[in-house]
Each structure stands twice: as C-alpha cells, then as structure tokens.
Write a structure and sequence with these properties.
This is ABC transporter ATP-binding protein. 62% of the residues lie in helices and 12% in strands. It contains 17 helices and 12 strands. The chain has a 6-stranded mixed β-sheet, sandwiched between helices. Strands 2-1-4-5 form a 4-stranded antiparallel β-sheet, with helices on one face. The model has no long low-confidence stretch (mean pLDDT 85).
C-alpha cells in the first residue's frame, strides 16, 4: 500500500513538474520574443537559450524532486518524532537540543551551496554563449586555423565548471558524512547513555524494545535529515534559476501602442532625429528627411556612418532620443507595432533563412498564402534560376541558415518573401556579395520589381544602382552632409561626386 502510494505521489509530482516546465518555457519564450531589440545587443544568444532551457529545467527539478522529497522527509521526521514523544516524552524533548546545531548546519550548507551554484550557473551560461558563437563562426574558426585556440578556451571554461562541481560534491560529502553523521553518533550515544544510566542506577525501567525503537527511529530521522540537506542544496540551484527567469520576465516588453494604422501609404518623415545606442554617443544627429509614398530614398556613406541605424529606427527597433519619425503623419513611437511591421518588409544584405522549405521561407507561416502566390513572387523577382537548379522546386529543403543555397539564391528567396508580403514600405540593404554578373543582373531586376509602387529605403553600396532614386542621402558620422537627386549631387561637386567617380573608375 505504502509503495503504491509513493508511486502515485511520484507520478503526480512528475506530471505537475513537466506541465510547469512546459508553461514556463512557453511564457519565457513568448516574453523574449517581445523584448526590445536593445536587450539582445547586450546579451549573447547562447545566454538567452540557457535561460529558456537550463533554467526552466532547474525549476522543473524543484517540483519534481526537491519539493516532493522535502515534503516526504519533513512528514517522515515529524511522524517519527511524534512516535518518540509517545515513548518517552522528557528524553525526546531533551534531544531537541540538537535543533540549533541542525539549524546552523543547514544555514552554513545553504550559504556555501548557494555561492557555488551561482558560480556554476554563470559558468554554464558562459559556456552556452561561447559554444553558440563558436558554432556559428565555425567557417571562420576553421579557415583561420583557430580550432586549437578555441578548444583551449572551451576547455578552460569546462575545467572551471568541473572544479566548481567538485567543490559542490565535496560540500555535499562533508555534510552527509561528517556533519550529520557526527550529530547522529552523538545523539545515538546520548540514547545509549540515557538508557544505560536508567539501567545501572535503576532510576527508571528500561525496556530493550524501546532502546531498539529509539536507535531505529533516530537512524531514520538522520537519514531523512541528510536527504533533506541534499535536497535543500538542489533547492538553491532551482531558486537561483527561478530568480534568473523572473529577472528576465520582469524586463519590460514594449507596451501595446494606441495608434492604429490598418493600411500605411508610406509617407515618411524624420524630423530633427538624433539617436544613440548607449552612453549618449550620438550615432545620428539632426536628421531631416521626407519621403512621399512610392518614392525611393537611398543612403550612402562610409562604414559606420549610420545607414543601418536609420533602418533600425524606421523599423522602430529602437526609439529616438530626440526628434520624431512620422509615418502617414503618426509618430512611430505611438504607432501599433504590429500595424507598422505588417506594412514593412526588410531584405538584409545577408538574408536569414529558417529551417524548412523555400515555400515556408517565403510564406513565413502565413497560412493564407498559397503555393501559387509564393511561386509567383519567386518568379517575379527572378527566382527561376533557383527552380531550375533544384528539382524539388519550392519544396526544396532549407537547412539551418540556408547554407545549402548560394548567396544570390538566398537573396532571391528573401526578395520573394518581401514581395509576397506586399508591403507599402520596403527596407533594402543592397547586397555587396560577390555574385556573378548574370545573377547580379537578375538581382537588380528583382530589386526593381520589388520597389514598384512602394516607399523604398535603400542602403546602397554600389552607387551605379541608385542613380534613379528620388532622393540620395549622404551620411557622414551620423549627419546628413548632402541630399538630393543623383544629378543634383553630381552638380554639387562634393562628397557624393567623389565617391561616384571613384567607384565608376573601379568598375571600369
Ligand atoms: N547595436 C549597437 N549598439 C551600439 N552601437 C552600435 C550598434 N549598432 C551600431 N552601432 C554603432 O553605430 C554607428 C553606426 O552604425 P551603422 O551600423 O548604422 O553604420 P552603417 O553606416 O550601416 O555601417 P556599414 O556600412 O558598415 O553597415 C557605428 O559607430 C556603430 O559602431
């Protein structure tokens, strides 16, 4: 009966713990998805992964083992003490003298376990971040023969984890075999002395059965106490992990914005915008631009001049510190983000492909988009070359990062993704990748197709491709130094003209 009950209780805790872990992982991930992009600037992806997986697992252990065991141990000790009290009230009461010692033992153990566990979690999180980064950068590591150096670094963190675990094991061993066991022997010694005294002096009747029960019950009490101490160590780990998770959940997500814009026409204005990522180091200063619906605005400038930052602000990944950005007359900081992003599509220089198929990468889980829609989009941007090369067509498998596709193919798939979304605003970071001239012509045509009828923000690396832009903005250290059509900028005889001539000379 007792066995059956214990199995049922065990199943109950395990089921509850798994459910809790499931909900918690879902909630943590849901929260992470809504965090401002700035949060990810500070925290490596591996650490976020560690929060979602390792930390929730540690909290699961809290429910699965720790609490169930602690409760069982506590109930056991209580019942055994009640039994002892009923056998000899006074003596059992006097044995409670060990309580302060047990308390101190617990406290000392918890403090030490806590600091070791904290360090362990930090090291594990570092290890995850390190691993994540290194696996992502494997091509560079291998091509620069960095394997041994990276392995050394990895082994270094791993060794630290090993040493830390060893310290924890020693701590457990010390408490199990030294501290609690000494206490147990002292108590059992006390039992024997007490009953010995009774027997020798005849002060009270000594029953051998009672001595046996005292020894047996105290042995069981100490076994449970030992178990409880071990579990309290685990409790600390889980507590720390829960702390991590709550810390993450407390980071404010972007609040729901009131201003709704079902359909955006693409009228955009940057009004006296200044912006910094951190430490008040402004990377954009006094930016003023106006773009009418359907116009193309191109940004040129040296590396670090602030081109991508302009796009980050337009997508509202960050809020400006000074000035404002108006979209169809609505301040972007008040505009509902879902409305904004539904109306914008972004194509990055190095497009990101998800694991799945070409189709799933174009429709991005939009069930309403049919295979025909996706295929049409792909054909329009010049994706025929992909279909010709891959016999499974739109259902060709895309593995992690889309590494099995060429840079040009990845670009075309991301163009199709943007076109199929049919946005009114397009953000395009023009590719500089060394693609063959045939693919480049196809890509250029794809870009032209994409731009049709949309307000387009274009980061231009090749000036020959932006001659037709309605407005070309030249950025230098976060400031607009020239602005106008290609012809106007050439006639200005300034920075743009120099850049243009330099590139033309290189290309010819
Ligand atoms: N997430 C970030 N956190 C802090 N600083 C950043 C961040 N992103 C960019 N910066 C800084 O902002 C400045 C502008 O960067 P930005 O990426 O906008 O330049 P860019 O003109 O797009 O350059 P490139 O042509 O090399 O892509 C740079 O000094 C850069 O170091």
């Amino acid at each position: 009966m007792e066995e059956l009950l214990s199995i049922l209780v065990d199943i109950f805790w395990k089921k509850a713990a798994n459910k809790i872990a499931l909900f918690m992982q879902r909630d943590v991930y849901k929260h992470v998805q809504k965090l401002p992009i700035s949060y990810f600037d500070e925290l490596p992806a591996g650490k976020v992964v560690s929060r979602i997986t390792n930390d929730t697992k540690a909290v699961k252990v809290l429910f699965q083992i720790v609490l169930s065991d602690l409760i069982t141990c506590g109930v056991y000790i209580l019942v055994l003490y009640i039994a002892l009290f009923s056998l000899d009230f006074k003596f059992t009461l006097s044995t409670l003298i060990i309580l302060p010692i047990v308390y101190l033992l617990f406290k000392d153990f918890i403090n030490k376990a806590s600091s070791i566990n904290k360090k362990g979690r930090r090291l594990l999180s570092d290890l995850n971040a390190n691993l994540n980064e290194n696996i992502q950068g494997m091509e560079i590591i291998q091509s620069f023969n960095q394997e041994d150096k990276i392995l050394d670094e990895f082994t270094g963190v791993n060794n630290k984890i090993y040493k830390n675990m060893l310290n924890l094991t020693k701590l457990y061993a010390y408490n199990s075999f030294n501290a609690t066991q000494t206490l147990q022997y002292l108590t059992l010694g006390g039992v024997l002395l007490y009953f010995g005294y009774g027997s020798i002096t005849g002060a009270f009747a000594v029953n051998i059965g009672i001595i046996y029960l005292f020894v047996d019950y105290f042995t069981k009490i100490f076994a449970n106490l030992n178990n409880a101490i071990q579990r309290i160590g685990n409790l600390e780990t889980s507590y720390g992990a829960a702390d991590h998770i709550f810390e993450l959940l407390q980071i404010e997500i972007i609040p729901e914005r009131k201003e709704k814009l079902e359909n955006i026409s693409g009228d955009i204005e940057f009004k006296d915008v200044s912006f910094y990522y951190k430490d008040e180091e402004y990377v954009l200063k006094d930016i003023n631009i106006k773009v009418k619906p359907g116009e193309t605005i191109a940004f040129v400038g040296h590396t670090g001049s602030g081109k991508s930052t302009m796009m980050n602000l337009l997508l509202n990944f960050y809020n400006t510190q000074k000035g404002k950005i108006l979209i169809d007359g609505v301040d972007i900081s008040q505009l509902n983000q879902e409305d904004l992003r539904r109306n914008i599509a972004i194509v990055l220089q190095d497009p990101f492909l998800f694991t799945g198929t070409i189709f799933s990468n174009i429709n991005l889980n939009d069930d309403k988009m049919t295979e025909e829609d996706a295929l049409n989009a792909l054909m329009k941007v010049g994706g025929k070359i992909i279909l010709d090369r891959h016999p499974k067509g739109i259902y060709t498998e895309v593995k992690e990062d889309g590494n099995s596709f060429s840079a040009g193919e990845r670009q075309l798939i991301s163009f199709a993704r943007a076109l199929a979304k049919n946005p009114s605003i397009l953000v395009l970071d023009e590719a500089t990748a060394n693609i063959d001239s045939e693919t480049e012509t196809i890509i250029q045509k794809g870009i032209e197709e994409l731009k049709k009828g949309r307000t387009t923000f274009l980061i231009a690396h090749r000036l020959s491709t932006i001659k037709n832009a309605d407005n070309i903005v030249v950025l230098d250290k976060g400031r607009i130094i020239e602005q106008g059509s290609h012809d106007k900028l050439i006639s200005l005889n300034g920075v743009y003209k120099k850049m243009y001539e330099l590139q033309s000379a290189k290309e010819n």
